[in-house]
Amino acid sequence: MRSALLRLRRGTGLPVAFGGLLEGQRQVRIGELSGTGTRALRGLAVTAGNGLGGKAVALSRPCAVTDYHDSRHISHEYDGAVAAEGLRSVLAVPVVVRRRVRGVLYGALRTAQPLGGRTLSAAVAAARDLEQALVVRDEVRQLLVTAREPVAGPAAWEQVREAHSTLRGLAPRVLDPALREELLAVCGRLATAAAPSPERDVSLAPREVDVLTCVAGGLTNAKTAERLGLRPETVKGYLRAAMRKLGAHTRLEAVVAARRAGLLP
Fold this sequence. Notes:
By secondary structure, the protein is of the alpha+beta class.
């Protein structure tokens, strides 16, 4: 949310931005502020249908007003908080994930003037970024639940390896540092589950592990580069370094050695 608000301000030029995520089915709690001069908006609970943000939630589309206080197109339950911050022109963009509103981003001016299409488009782009971040977070949390389930049998191990590969691929895209650390910790537990007593003590760089994870999944260097957002030459470099540390001469030997060392499941 904080990153999305900063992007909204940079992209639109609006001096004030704030937003929050949905609590329950019908209420957004304003939890992040950027560029505000007071704390009047922090913690404000916006109900679907009420005010500008509530209208954006109810309609599931962006809404804007040129002068919040005098607008006849919204209800005015939150005029006190808006006036305390001195806001006049305001836009609200819903954050929609899989057809469900998950939050709202606001941008505002302290003067009454129309907010043009370019400004609205930049605010929508910031909301799209947040939507993608929420999708990743949802996927990670579901995979974390799956990864904690007991493992039994060859088929289950293949599921573990697939989950490990997916989690390693998602880690760089997770903006929440606490969630990213939890994700990587689970990856470590999945890897050592297959080799609770590693045969050798080997330390690989995170990207070397990422590359070996893709190799273990049967990906080529080109596909590995695409998944990890790297150049194929960079992938080759990481792979060579990992093979050298593991004492392996082939890709397959490197994967086997990494599993024995508790680096891959």
